[in-house]
Amino acid sequence: MIFVPSVLWQIFVGSFFATQYSVLIPILGFLLQVSSIYLLLATALSDPGIMPRQKDFTEHYDERSKVWRTREPQRFYDVVLRGHPLKLKYCKTCNIYRPPRCTHCSVCENCVERFDHHCPWLGNCIGKRNYPLFYGFVSTTGALNILVLATSVSQLALRASEIAEEAQIGAGDAFGQALLREAMAAVLSIYALGIVWFTFGLCAYHNWLVCTNQTTYEQIKGAFSGAVNPFHRGILGNYWDILFSPVRPRYFNAHFNRLLWPPKGAVPLEHQMRSKKAVRSLPLPKIDTAEMTDLRVPEETRSTVPALPRTDQQGMRPGSEERYLPTELAQPVDQEPLPPPVGPPRPGSGASPLGVKASSSPGGQDIL
Fold it and tell me: Which residue in 94, 102, 105, 119 is the catalytic one?
């Protein structure tokens, strides 16, 4: 549908415009043809974002309950995404909870991340990993279809104009003769006109889906009809998120049927828990107390600190029950104690101007 009409267009229509007008027109057509075929093959042979399957729930050992699982996990799991409640559905075929926007394809029998649709023309699913390729294929094919239609009809119109001037006949008769002389241009015009609604219409439809950040599956099912789309980021943000954001690596290699997830060096959670349990169950090493070094401080290195007076109110902080070291004991032993501070007493402190703290006598009179 693309290769054969492209070759015929280059031979009959592209050569006409190259000789009569400019060689840029067939060059533009060649670039669109190569891009369309390349993106077609790249989309058909790419991984759409298949999620790796897990073992059956009966093959999982629960470390907490110390038994093998016998009950199937719950069908739905509620999560909140950007303030919007969503339900994650458990897939009984793949034995996983599907991420948001992930759907199980009934044709491929795989859960595809950000599933758009299964394309029968390509024989592959369209998902998160190959949607930019599919979008490029649809866009280039639509542009190529319009180019073929416009140039083929233009060639017929130009040839009819030349015939009308040479033969001095009407426009209708001249157009009929142009159809006979440029039969391949007429065939390409009819072919391009018959499929333009599909190619260009599909391109316009997917541009609308990108602007609203929806998939074909979500739009047909009406997933966000009457509700707020939590994935909508504005038109420019949607184009960047869907078409230009980095593509994650594949989870498996389809050519060798080898799983690429988890990556090399990663230890499964079950093995990690078993390793921790094994480490905790190891016996503690025995310590020979006879060979231990005496860590007590020698008597000659101990410093003699005078005992604190055992007075009830001496050495008490105001409003606190903790004792503190008096000022004369806080200085080094070889220095003289600092004199008491001289200044007005604090209000309510009961101290004299010389800094001597007053104490109450048993009779209730303050003595200095």
Answer: 119
